[in-house]
Amino acid sequence: MKQHIPNTVTCLNLFSGCLGIVFAFNGNLVFASYAILIAAVLDFLDGMLARLLKAYSELGKQLDSLADMVSFGVLPSVIIYHLFLSSVEITSLSLISYSAFIIAVFSGLRLAKFNIDTRQSENFIGLPTPANALLIASFPFMMEENNSFFMNYIMNPYSLLVFSLIMSFLLISEIPLISLKFKTLSFSENALRYTLILSSILLILLLQFAAVPIILILYILISLLQFRKTVKV
Length: 233
Description:
It is a single chain. Helix 2 packs antiparallel against helix 3 (58-86), helix 3 (58-86) packs antiparallel against helix 4 and helix 4 (102-116) runs parallel beside helix 7. It is built from nine helices and two strands. It has a two-stranded antiparallel ribbon with strand order 1-2. The protein has helices at 4-25, 29-53, 58-86, 102-116, 129-144, 148-154, 157-172, 191-207, 211-226, and strands spanning 124-125, 176-177. The chain has one domain: Four Helix Bundle (Hemerythrin (Met), subunit A).
C-alpha cells in the first residue's frame, strides 16, 4: 500500500497542472501560477515520501516525469503564450506567440534525458523543469504588483522570445547544478545549499516575487562555484 502513497501525490501534481492549464486558457494567469506553486510542493513531497517509505518504482519514476511535463512544461508555456498575446505589439507578430511552446518541447527533452542520465542521481545536469516553471510563475504575480522594471520585459514579445530560447537551452545544457537533497544536516557538507536557501528567503522577504529571477541566477552561480572544476568551457 505504501508504494502508492508517493504515486498518489504525483497524480495530485498532475491534476494541479491540468487545472492550471484551464486557468491559463481562461486568462487567469495568477491562478495558473498558483497551480505551478502547488505542483512544485507536491513534486517535492512525492520524492521525499518515496525516500522515507523506500517506495521507489519504475512506475513512479515515469509517472513523475509525465506529471512534470504537464505542470512544469506545458502549463508554463501556456502562461508565456498568453503573455505574448497580451503584448501591445503582438498584432503584427502573431506567429511569434507560438514560440512559447518551445519551452514545452525542451522540457520534454529535459525530462526524457533525466530519466536515462545516471549522472543526475545526486545533482542535476541542466536546469530542472520546476525551477524554470517557478520563474515563469512569478511573472503574473509581478504583473499584479505592477513592477515597472520587469513589466517592460514581460510584456515585450521580443524579450519573451529571447527568454524562451535561453530557458530552453538551459533545460538541456550540460551545466551541473546542485540539488536540494540533503544527505546530512552538516553545515560544512551543505554550506552552499544553506547559502542558497537563506539567501532566497532573504530576497523573497525584501523583493517578494521580483526576487525569483535573482534567485535563479544565484542558483546557477552557486552551482558553478560548487562544480567549477568539472564545468567544461
